[in-house]
Amino acid sequence: MGIIVAEKRNLPKGHSQPPRWLKVLIGLFLVVFVIGGLYSGYLFYVTVRTIVANADLPAIPVVQLPSIRAPEAVAEEEIEELEPPPVLPEMTAVPGQTELVYQPPVAPASAEERINILLVGIDRRNGENWAYRTDTMIVVTIDPVNKEAGMMSIPRDLYLTIPGLGEDRINAANPRGYSISYPGGGPSLLKHTIETNFGIPIDYYIMIDFAGFQKVVDTLGGIEVDVPRTLHDTMYPMPKPGDPYAMGTVHFDPGLQSMDGERALQYARSRMSTSDFDRARRQQAVLVAIRQKALRPGSLPRLPAMGFIVLDSLETNLSPREVLALGLLAVRLDPARLERVVLEPPLVYGYVRPDGAAVQLPNWELINPVIDEHMARP
Question: Which residues pair with 259 in a beta bridge?
């Protein structure tokens, strides 16, 4: 007994054993916490499953813009008078001298109208601003009534009219929109460029950088993509300290491939050994793979974390409620009724400008029927 007492007296101050009742209380708290967490997770799973299976889709507020159709496809007496596009200042204009007033009209909420979403990918570095040229532009269209969807990839070198600024590559619309303080910034001018040239009303946009894309795929635990043919690129951008323009090699064998965020980005971004049109098809395949992985039951616990990552890595005009509604709608879409369109030859054709720049010109006679079939809103 004396030895025990002596040992207790020699213990350093601050390392005294906690009383027994405190140990019991902490143990009970941990047990309740774990059991409560498991039960809450189960309730969350059941609730989401019930919503997806039975709940009516929440109404999604959309932006309704006047439908613009090619003159050659409409009889003269059917052409409606449309408001002219806004006149924007040239790049040399002094900010504040010209008022930019373009504001698209807001339509009543409806869950039965076709919804068009512009997905934009840019090479934004180190959390800088979003005033970069757009590497990826995909218009996603959703038909809630027929539960079908479609994707149309627009080449970044497509040469067309940017409203108020003249002709240029479409990927220049975003940075120029920021430079002239266009209402809504670059994404708004890019939306308006697509609307006025293609006649496709864009309801929402989602702009994400490469780092955010990688985080989304990694948070899902990776994706699986069926690679149709060998991809070998010896000039893939791999910047490193002291050499921001360093190149490296990426290689993909044909067949079903498991990809983490870095590999998925390499597969979607590689272009030197192929073409921009082939790259657009690969990007669409990656998006489909992300959707498939996100809808698996095992991915459900990862979705909240992915939501926080996405909110930190993108620019969008979607509200949290609209994100939830679109997520529920995506679950109900029929995967077999997904149309994929890439604007490639003969829908577009190559052209060299007088200054020597190589661009792509639109063949509207072939593009307009594709839009009427897959993208147009009645």
Answer: 223
What confidence score (pLDDT) does residue 113 get?
81
Distance CA 52, CA 170 (A): 38
Dmax over CA atoms of the chain, in Å, equals 110
What DSSP string runs through 221-264?
T-EEEEE-S-EEEEEEE--BTTBTT-EEEEEE-SEEEEE-HHHH
Q: Say what the pTM is.
A: 0.70
Contact 121, 279 (CB under 8 A): no
Which burial class, exposed, middle or buried, applies to 79 when counting CB atoms under 10 A from its CB (0-12, 13-18, 19+)? exposed
Q: Return the closest-CA partner of residue 287 out of 140, 122, 124.
A: 140
204/17: higher pLDDT: 204
* CATH of span 100-374: 3.40.630.190
- CA–CA gap between residue 85 and residue 189 (Å, rounded): 11
Q: Which tens digits make up the pLDDT trace of 180-207? A: 999 999 999 999 999 999 999 999 999 9
Count of residues making up the chain: 378
What type of residue sits at position 33?
Answer: F
Q: Token match 């504040």: residue?
A: 96
Task: Please tell me which residue, 361 or 35, carries the higher pLDDT value.
Answer: 361
Cβ atoms of residues 120 and 134 within 8 Å: yes
CB 142 within 8 A of CB 57: no
